[in-house]
Amino acid sequence: MELSEQSVVVIGSGFGGLSTACYLADAGADVTVVEKNEQVGGRASRLETDGFRFDMGPSWYLMPDVFEGFFGDFGRSPDDYYTTEQLDPHYRIFFKDGDEVDISPDIEETKETFETYESGAGESLEEYLEKSELNYEVGMEHFVYEDRPRFRDWADLNVLKNARGLSLIGSMQDHVEEYFEHPKLQQIMQYTLVFLGGSPNNTPALYNLMSHVDFNLGVHYPDGGVGGVVDGIASLGEELGVTYRTDQPVTAIEGRAGGFKVEARDTFLPDLVVSDADYAHTELDLLPPEKRGYSEEYWESRTYAPSAFLLYLGVEGDVEELAHHTLVLPTDWESHFEKIFEEPEWPDDPAYYLCVPSKTDDSVAPEGHSNLFALVPIAPGLDDRPVIRESYRDLVLRDIAEHTGVDLKDRIVFEEVFTIDDFAERYNSMRGTALGLAHTLDQTAVFRPPHRSKEVDGLYFTGSYTTPGIGVPMCLISGQLTAEAVAADYPNQ
Question: Full-prediction pTM beyond 0.85?
Fold first, then answer.
C-alpha cells in the first residue's frame, strides 16, 4: 500500500479512526486525526477524578489475536505498548434467584459447572465450542478481514466453499437451544450478544463465534485498562507520523478543487477524508443533502444497538463479592430485551454488568477504595430527564445490594451518571446509541453501510457502523479495510 503525496483528515479518534490513521500513515499519507473531545479514544474515553480512573466505554479485552495482528502489521507487538493478564475467573454471574456461578479459564472446570445444571451439558459445551471455533477461524479469515461490499462479491465459489458448514442463518436463540435446554446455560452462551448490540432473537447464529472468543481465547485485562490500549495505538500512530488535534468538533465537510475543506475550530484542507464519527451524524449533519448516501428516512428505520445507563462509582473499601467482571441476570431476561427492541422503556428488572478494575489494577483507585461502574443496556432514544436518572440510579443500587450482597449506598465518595443524552452530546450518536447499528440479519456484512461514500469521491467511513461491525477488535479491522479501500482507489499516488 503506497499513498505518498496524499493528505488525509480522519474525523474522530475511536478505534476505527486510530486504526485507519496508522495504516494510512504507514502507507505514506500525511494524516491528521481531528477529534471533537478533549482526548483521543472516542467511546473509549477515560474519566479521571479524585484519584479514580474509569474506562468510560469498552472495558473487556477480547480477541487478543486481533490486537497482535494489528500491531504485527507495523512490525510491533502489543507488549511494546502495554501488558495484559488473563482474568480468573473470566467473569462471575449472579442470577436473581440467588444462584451464583464463576466462569473459569479452565474449560474442564467449566464443563463440570455446566453438568451441575444439565446432564450432558459438559459434552454439549465441547461440541458447541468446536462449532464456535470453526465459525471463528473461517469467519475471520474469509469474511471479517476481507471486505465484500457488493452482493456479487459473495457469489463466487471460494466464498460458497468456505461458507459451507457455518451457522449463517437462524437466530442465536435457535442455535443455542440445539445444544442446551437449561435457560441459565443458554444465557451464559448468549451474554456476549450485548457486545454486539443485539438480543438472542435478532442476532444471526453466526455470532456463536463469540463463545470461542470468550471460552477459548480468554478474557484479559490490559494494564491501564482499555484506555492504556488507546494510548498504545495513539503512540504507534505518532511513530508513523500521525498528527492528533483534539478539541476540534467538525461542523462541515465541503468539497473544493482537488480535495476537501473540513470545518472545525480550525479549517483543514486535505485531499481525502475518512469519517470515524457516527455514520448518520456525518451524513445528516456534516454533508449537504445532495451529498448524502442515505436519506434521513433510512437512518430513522435502522435497528440501533442499545444505549446504556452507566453509573461510575468510587467507593470506600473492598467489594469482595464481585469479580473484575460481574453479570447480574434475571432468570428470565426476555422482558429486558423486549424493553430494548420491542416496546422501549426503562427496564424495571434489569440485566446488567458490573466492572471492578481495582480488583486487578491498583492504579485505578486511591488506596482503601474500589473503582466500580454499573452498565445497564437500555433502549436508545428514551427520555432521560434528571428525575428519571435519579430514580433509576436508586433502582440500580438497590438491585445490586439485593442480588450481590454489596450495599454501596453509604460508601460512595464519587459518582457520575452517563446515559442516552450524554452519548448523543459527547459522541454525536444517533438516538444516543452506545454502539451503533445492531448486528441483526439485515444489518450484517453487505447490509451494513459501506466504507466508501456512495456520493462523494474521496470520502470514506470507518468504525462500528461499517463492516465488520461493533466492538473494539472489529473497529481495528474496519480501519484496515478502510485504508485498503483508499489505497485501491488511489494507487501509487
Answer: yes
